[in-house]
Write a structure and sequence with these properties.
The protein is an alpha/beta fold. It has one domain: Aldolase class I (TIM Barrel). The strands form 4 sheets. It has a 4-stranded parallel β-sheet with strand order 5-6-7-8. Helix 13 links the parallel strand 7 and strand 8. It starts with 8 loop residues before the first helix and ends with a strand.
Length: about 400
């Protein structure tokens, strides 16, 4: 397989947004009292890759405005004023899970109160109940069920594709793929290929958490380790399935763990080019065994977006997931490196079980308002970031 060429930010300088960047720099020049940031600024403006030491410095500094200036400079260099959103719906077919992750408030043992598993027809009905001609994506993730056969998930995907052929199916995390492969006694590659043949169009980025073995042994010891997550993503990319990538932050990890996570993702993206979007996920401790931990601060949320944009120079997109960060923080992040705030969602269970107080879903016009009031240009996209054009009764995707 041909090695993917890293995204060359210097080459991006030739894009039409150049004039706008020059104007921004002239109007709001880079300023900082932290002298450690000046050599990083020089690298960023020259399109040079940041090092581990650079990334640790970005986390350590208190000058969030300077870090944000650099991240916004890169963001505008790549995307101008465009800010993406989509019209999607989450489907969680089961919350029954054999894992007992300390970070999770969603999973249940199969005989526990609140445990559920959708029959296939129930899943199809659920999809239809939140469906309209506007929806371009079903986002499908769930627990690691000890009894459901692999065929259930294949039938779920093929049934959804049959009923909603125009909807992109973004389904099953790397953790779910590896678990289903083990239960079905198949290789990871065979499992992914059968999912693709059934109708899976791409994979979400969940389950990555933090790759550090030290941290995973505490927060999610029952999941595949970080190297296995990366290996599964590699195999997905090799058969033509794009995916996202996430990082769960704000629990027991430290700056070194975060940087290690980002650099491992960057290295795999250099190899495969298969990641579309990076999504930092703020940890919600409520109703989990880690509920004694504090929630993330706005400063950390914004800094995580900015550092991600600066370090992940080969990721096309950085998403500020409004369900986790709140719509207000997601809106501000559009000036701190993010170019996407996710979609309408319709119904979200996993983070709301962990105490999220954000709405279950937002209307299309709400997302447009958030983006517009941030001074950005809203562009509706499909899962593959192709622009969506709407009429009153239908939509078309630019290819």
């Amino acid at each position: 397989m041909k090695k993917a060429e890293p995204l060359n930010l210097q080459r991006e300088w030739d894009r039409p947004v150049r004039a706008g960047i020059i104007k921004t720099m002239a109007t709001h020049p880079f300023q900082t009292d932290d002298v450690r940031l000046n050599p990083i600024k020089d690298k960023v403006l020259a399109g040079q890759r940041l090092t581990e030491t650079d990334a640790l410095t970005l986390y350590a500094t208190g000058d969030i405005l300077a870090v944000g200036w650099l991240a916004n400079w890169v963001r505008e260099r790549m995307h101008g004023d465009t800010a993406y959103f989509n019209v999607n719906r989450h489907i969680n077919p089961t919350n029954v899970c054999v894992a007992a992750c300390r970070l999770c408030a969603f999973g249940r043992k199969k005989d526990a109160p609140g445990a559920y598993t959708m029959a296939l027809e129930e899943a199809f009905t659920t999809a239809a109940s939140g469906y309209s001609e506007a929806i371009t994506e079903f986002h499908i993730v769930g627990g690691l069920h000890p009894d459901l056969p692999f065929q259930y998930f294949l039938d779920l995907v093929s049934g959804l594709k049959e009923r909603f052929p125009q909807v992109h199916l973004k389904a099953f995390t790397m953790v779910e793929v590896a678990y289903l492969a083990k239960r079905a006694k198949l290789s990871i590659q065979e499992t992914l290929q059968q999912m693709k043949d059934a109708g899976v169009d791409s994979l979400p980025g969940g389950g990555a958490e933090i790759f550090s073995d030290r941290v995973r042994h505490i927060i999610c010891d029952h999941k595949i380790d970080g190297d296995q997550w990366l290996d599964t993503a590699r195999l997905a990319h090799q058969i033509g399935l794009k995916s996202n990538a996430t990082m769960l932050y704000g629990h027991i990890e430290n700056d070194e763990d975060r940087v290690d996570h980002l650099l491992k993702l960057r290295a795999l993206q250099d190899e495969t080019g298969g990641f579309q979007t990076f999504i930092p996920l703020a940890f919600h401790p409520a109703n989990t065994p880690l509920q004694h931990l504090p929630t993330t601060t706005g400063m950390l949320d914004i800094k995580q977006i900015a550092v991600s944009r600066l370090v992940l120079d080969n990721f096309p997109h950085v998403k500020s997931y409004w369900q986790m960060m709140t719509p207000k923080i997601a809106q501000i992040s559009l000036r701190f490196g993010a170019d996407d705030i996710d979609g309408t969602v319709v119904e979200e269970k996993i983070y709301h079980d962990a105490g999220a107080t954000t709405p279950q879903g937002l209307r299309r016009q709400d997302l447009i308002r958030l983006i517009t009031e941030a001074g950005r240009e809203p562009v509706e996209r499909d899962t593959l970031y192709r622009p969506v054009t709407r009429t009153e009764t239908s939509f078309t995707v630019s290819v």
